[in-house]
Design a protein that fits this description.
The complex is a heterodimer of chains A (114) and B (114). Chain A is mainly β. Chain A contains no helices and twelve strands. In chain A, the strands form three sheets. In chain A, strands 2, 5, 6, 10, 11 and 12 form a six-stranded mixed beta sheet that branches. In chain A, a hairpin with a 5-residue loop joins strand 5 and strand 6 (44-50). Chain B is mainly beta and 114 residues long. Chain B has strands at 5-7, 10-13, 19-24, 31-38, 42-50, 53-56, 65-71, 74-79, 88-95, 104-105, 109-113. In chain B, strand 7 (65-71) and strand 8 form a beta hairpin. The chains are: A mainly beta (114), B mainly beta (114).
Chain lengths: 114, 114
């Protein structure tokens, strides 16, 4: 069965500092991995995805994520946080065995302080 | 493209009343997902359609919930009768096809059942 874990409910970081939002996953086949962001009163927006290829994936708004197969992780990173990055971040996983269902993590709330 | 459109954006109703939520897919997309988001349970997949056909409705909480896709671009989620515990934000998301990875979310309908 597929599952995804976001171990931190909340991450606090100062503006200008690097940020990391953690995600680990479990799938039967090869993983398709995603990060989505949700701003207040809005739907989820796609940030980036890993399907195959380079383990470092670059996405929108300067975010990137690193796929680590041995650690079954897909942590979201940004070198320099902005106050406007404050939002709820969801990691999601789907496997490549033909299943349609994408499983979302519980979400991590990111607070960036000025 | 206008993106996924949901209506209404907010709905306040009394227990026992029927509630109908509406979703218009992005043109050319043929996979549709209905999700429910609450603080307690996070983001839950309710039902998934592909080419207007319900593929998996195992997430639908109970018989009070029903979803239809009368044509390729439109879906409804109905709750009858509604209960206070149905209060949540309901999102629909569309995808270009079953083998495409990225889902595009609507802005959500915030439902409050009194």
């Amino acid at each position: 069965a597929q599952s995804v874990a976001q171990p931190e409910d909340q991450v606090n970081v100062a503006e200008g500092n690097p940020l990391t939002v953690k995600c680990t996953y479990s799938v039967s086949g090869n993983p398709y991995l995603f990060w989505y962001v949700q701003y207040p009163n809005r739907g989820l927006q796609f940030l980036l995805k890993y399907i195959t290829g380079d383990n470092l994936v670059k996405g929108s708004y300067g975010f990137e994520a690193e796929f680590n197969k041995s650690q079954t992780s897909f942590h979201l990173k940004k070198p320099s946080a902005l106050v406007s990055d404050s939002a709820l971040y969801f990691c999601a996983v789907r496997d490549d065995t033909g299943g349609f269902k994408t499983i979302f993590g519980a979400g991590t709330r990111l607070f960036v302080k000025a | 493209d206008a993106g996924v459109i949901q209506s209404p954006r907010h709905e306040v109703t009394e227990m026992g009343q029927e509630v109908t939520l509406r979703c218009k897919l992005i043109s050319g997309h043929n996979s549709l997902f209905w999700y429910r988001q609450t603080m307690m349970r996070g983001l839950e997949l309710l039902i998934y359609f592909n080419n207007n056909v319900p593929i998996d409705d195992s997430g639908m909480p109970e018989d009070r919930f029903s979803a239809k896709m009368p044509n390729a671009s439109f879906s409804t989620l109905k709750i009858q009768p509604s209960e206070p515990r149905d209060s949540a934000v309901y999102f629909c998301a569309s995808r270009q096809g079953p083998n495409q990875e990225t889902q595009y979310f609507g802005p959500g309908t915030r439902l409050l059942v009194l």
